[in-house]
Amino acid sequence: MSHKLNEAIARIRPTDVQARADAARYLDTLTKPPGSLGKLEDIAVRLAGIEGSLSLDVSRKAVVVMAADHGVCEEGVSAFPAEVTPQMVMNFLHGGAAINVLARQAGADVVCVDIGVNADLAHESLRVRKVRKGTANIARGPAMSREEAILAISHGIELAGQLADDGYRLLATGEMGIGNTTPSAAMLAVFASIEPELAVGRGTGVDDAGVRRKRDTIRQAIAVNAPDAADPLDVLSKLGGLEIAGLAGVILGAAARQVPVVVDGFIASIAALTAVRIAPNAREYLIASHVSQEQGHRLVLERLGLSPMLDMHMRLGEGTGAALAFHLVEAAVRIMREMATFDSAGVSR
After folding, report:
1. Of 141, 144, 175, 249, which is least surrounded by CB within 10 A?
2. For the chain, what is the radius of gyration of the CA atoms?
3. Which CATH code is given to the segment(s) 3-55+335-345?
4. What dotted CATH number matches 61-328?
């Protein structure tokens, strides 16, 4: 592994148990029945453990959207052509996508990264960290080399560190990559030791024949590549995507800097599962935003041990569910900062 990856893994510590306990006790002094704010209280406790303090601040937020293409599109696994990936990246950069709208509403910035788009893109706001122009077709061989997977992870780690240095205290993971539900489902099938049909969903909206193609493609990819489920980098490099690797790096880098990460949908959650398989302590820095309609998503969240805040029947990706959940995270922080205690309000317990 690279020096950057090893360094990040070494810096990821368990969150502060005492701060979590202090936060739970403080919440019980507020003018409400104990535990009555449910998951908002759980989020506040988790944030206190990450911060190591009850002084919580998530005022500066960013959604990191990693973009990459996938050679497996050759197998007809997507309802959209691969050219949509670079087109949507430019849409993000011009502020016209759903994630731009929802991030603006949440007061968050969108950080768009080209980590493997099969096109030469240029824009003053685009962060170019291209490892290669898309992955290879996983039905025929490995998606990428192990070294390329590690490089993509390292780019994510570096970006998370830069954002932390710039004052961002809450990150979300988003992605763009036509065809990326197929490698994600393949990785889930291996990590969870389940049959592909349990991991495969409709992605961008393929019909029944498309779902069967995805299932068969995943079976072939696993047979051809024989990934080692005990080695997350092997699974990632053989079956994954560059945006998945980059987002895993963002999570590792954020955890190394004690910055919480709100995880979006299926692809972002596979990246989170990969990060946690690499560094188990990273799980404590994750907040699940929503459960999507992609059928494998709930299975990933179960293996992460995370409970989603929302079920909005969404399946867009881009970080959209995470951007919506920013409002709930901010609500949890405001409860801690602004709500009166029984003593200060003169309310009897």
Report:
1. 141
2. 20
3. 1.10.1610.10
4. 3.40.50.10210
